[in-house]
Each structure stands twice: as C-alpha cells, then as structure tokens.
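Ticket #4471: structure output looks truncated?

Reporter: J.K.
Steps to reproduce: submitted the chain below (524 residues) through the standard prediction queue, then opened the result file.
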Amino acid sequence: MAQVITAERPAADRTDRRKWWVLVAMVFGLFMPMLDNLVVNVALPTIQRQLGAGVSGLQWIIDAYTLTFASFMLTGGALGDLYGRRRFFMGGLITFTIGSLLCALSQSIGQLVAFRALQGLGAAMLLPGSLSIITATFSGRERGSAIGIWAAMSGLAIAIGPVIGGFLVEHVSWQSIFWINVPIGAIGLTMTALVVRESRDPSKSRRLDPAGLITGTSGLFFLVYALIEGNARGWTDGLILGGFALSAVLLAVFFYIESHRESPMLPLSFFRIPTFAAANIEAAAVFFAMFGTVFFLTLYLQNVEGYSPVAAGIRLFAFSVVILVVAPLAGRLSDRFGSRWFMTIGPLIAAGGMGLMLRTDVGSSYATVILPSFLVLAAGMALTMTPMTAAVMGSVPTRNAGVASAATNTSREIGGVFGIALLGAIVTSAFKRGFLARLTETGLSRAQATSIVSKAGASAAAGNAQLGTDGAALTQAVQNSFVHAIHIGILVSIGFLILASIVSALFVRSHVGNHDEEAAANGH
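Returned output as attached by the reporter:
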C-alpha cells in the first residue's frame, strides 16, 4: 500500500503543478489586453502630436479596440466551447500579438485604428477563453482561488498600466507600448502550448449566431461612426444621417433575430429578470461615465496641465490603486449583505467625485483639486463593480453563468464605447462654441473668430494649444474652452451615474441566498 502511495504521489504533484502553470499561462494571456486599457490613454497626446490626430482620431483609437472587443466577446466564448478552448485561446494570443506588432509599425491614424480593431478581436478570443480554461482545469475551492488570482492580476495590469505606459512613451516612444506585447504574447503562447490541455463543452449547448453577430456589430459600428464623425462632418450631413438610419434598422433586425432564435448570441429572455436587466443597465451607465471621463482627463493632464506622460501616468495610478484595494473588499461585503445598496450608493459616490472635478481649471493643483476627485470617483466605482458582477451571476441559474458573464462584460464595453463616442461629440461641440465666444470677446469679428476655430480644428478641441500663431491669448482661450467643455461632459456623466443608482434602487434584489429562485420565478 505504501509503495502505491509513493508511486502515485509524484504523478499527483505533477498534476497539481501543471494546474498552477495553466493559471500562469492564462494570466500572461490576460495581462496584455488589460494592460492596454489605460496604457494607450496615456499615449494619446503624443500620438496626437506625432500623427496629427484630432479628437475623432483619438476616439477611434480607443473605440476601434473596445467596439471589436465588445462585439465579438459572446461569439468568442461560444467558438472556444465548440472548437476547443486551448486552440481558440492560442488563436487569440496570436491575433492580439500580431495586432500589437502592426500597431507599433503604423504610420498613420487610419492604420493604427485598423490594427487596434485587430487587437480587439484577439482580446475577444482571449478573455472568455482564459476564464473557461481555468474553470475546466480547477474545481472546488481551488477554482475560486484561481479565479481570484486571475481577477487580481487583471486589476494589477490596469493599475500599473498608466505608469508603464507613461514611462515607455516618455523614454522610448509611443510605439513601445505596443512592442512590449510581442514578447509577452510569445511567452504566453509557448506556455499555453506546453501546459494547457484541450477542452470543449461536451453538451454542445452553445451554437454560433452569425446573423446576430453581423447585424449587432454593424448596427453598433454605424451608430458609433455617426456619433464620432458628426462634429467633423456636420450633424445634417448625408453620411451621418445615413449612419444613424442604418444603425436603427440593423439594431432592430438584431433584436428581432435574437428574440426568435433557439440559441441566440444575446439571450434577451434574461432581461426579463429585473436584477439581471438592471445590473446590465448599470454596467453600461457606469462604464459610459468612467471611459469617457478618463479619456478626456488624460488629455487634460498633458495638454492643459503640461504633465509629462510619466507624470500623468503616476497621477492616474492613484485612481487605479483605489479600485484595486476597495473592489475586493466591496465584493466580500456584498457576499454578506447583498449587492443592491452597494450598487445604489456606489454610483452616487462616483457622481460626487465627478462633482469635485467641476472645480478643475487651467493650472489647478493636483493635490488639492484633482487628487481628491480621483479618490472619491475611484472609491464609488470600486464599490459598484464587484457587487454588480455578483448580482448578475446570482440572478441566473448556474448553468447560464458563462453567457451571463459575457453579456455583462459586453454591456460594460459597449457603455465605454458610447462614453467615448457620445461624450466626445458633446465635449467637442461645447469646445467649439466656447472657443468661438472667447475669441469674439477679444474684439475679433465673428468671421475672423470662425476662421481661427476652423484652422485650430480638432487638434485644439483635444486641448492641444500649439496653434503656431501669436501665442498666449489664443493658448489661454483654447485651454479655458477645453476645460469648460470637459465640465459639460462631466455633468452628462453625473447624470448617467445618478440614473444607474436609481435603476439599482428600484430593480436590483439581493442575490444572497436566492440565486436561482429569482430566475425560476421569471421562468428560467
């Protein structure tokens, strides 16, 4: 008997060791797309100067990635379940790494936007695949520990992203934020090939939904296109009006298809569950506010306050650290007390943080004006995020957890897409009005002022005051107009956060002890 135990133990040890190496491989794969969330934001002002981008170009750099990521995430999870999670995860690693390489080699905004979309496609294959592989590899309490480590590493990547990005942009080049993904991707690919075993969904319960994917993605694309390009082309331009019309038609077709399919990409029946529907609305609203605000705050810190990329990254680090510390604590507390009040109070605290941002001006002190608003905003976001995820997962039967998780991640990303697109349109429009008014106040005729606004263009609308004209007065007008425009965007974000809080208070129910009961009561 002793000999048998001795003989079996090395094999068991090897299996245990392999499991944890699988986790390391998954973390490597996840680290790249998570790191890119804020790394690219810090590089935007430098990219703007070197490639000559306006606000719409900068918006597309973020939204091309986020929109592709959001659109393909549900399909990515289904493909992995059907055709092999390991194979699909490795495909995602290759796609993301090649996308990063091509981003680094880009010579124009158009090229960079296209290759950012390729990165988004790789990320959509990586994220659901990594969680599925961990779930298939670990069981029992080990699974919870493994998912906790996986989530912590993604949080760490987001936290250190601005600092790493700022250092690379300032001391190497903006291209280096993409080059760094190439060796990470190669290591992750090698480790996955060596330690991860292939797994599939034996029940074949998930099917592909090409019609849903095409109509949903196209509808979102045309809507985002119209929102981002509307300021440049004019809101009555034929292409813009056509974009809105096409979007309306395609999204109507998408919802029709999804409501009549046996195995839809997005199960609309879940939205009859009040907690699930409310949590997804809140996810979209909260990430709308966060993505849009961080986008413009990054431009503010560098173009208006004059911080270097490293200095701006360090100042954004405080925001990330608060989320990293508070989110796990909020998760543990919501497990005990339920998610509802965390999801109600969290957005209100975040709205308070944004209210403090309304004190910002040209030359505002970081320590007394900007930092307090960052800390309050981040605390509100952190109090919301983990309880919101727990509420979603607790509102549907366990067998539907994968689809529910993917749907919520999609809601978050789509909220982020529209945060950048819609707030970008609002901030750019407010900037142009404010800049024109300030120029006419200096004694210029309206025709002269309009000509200067037109020449300053989209670069100035991002707070970049390097106009190459007679300096101080115009620079001050640009910066003051940009800060005022950001305040308009912040007020819109506050409105979305208050809406999220109201929706939670009215419709979210505590998930403690009634995970499947609520779903059952609603016909699931």
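Triage note (M.O.): checked the attachment and the full token line is present. The mean pLDDT is 82.
Status: closed, working as intended.
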